Amino acid sequence: MYIILVYDMGEKRVAKMLRLCRRYLNWIQNSVFEGNITELKLKELIHEARQLMDESTDSLIIFSSRNERWLDKQVIGCERQSVDNFL
To answer: What is the model's pTM?
Structure first.
């Protein structure tokens, strides 16, 4: 599957998350990664990320799709911009 991963972490955890994500995906911008990954590898990445995160303040957002035209959004931890405010 193809994914785009974006994270926002506390200053003390940023470098560790960067190293973790670089093991699985291509680093395309600060805190943004993309690439093809198996479901098993994605589960491993999420598990390891949760070990690093403070889910009450940090966030990890994963957009995934079998076809790059359509993406599903998965948010782990605190979402910075909630869409609940849209009318």
So the answer is: 0.78
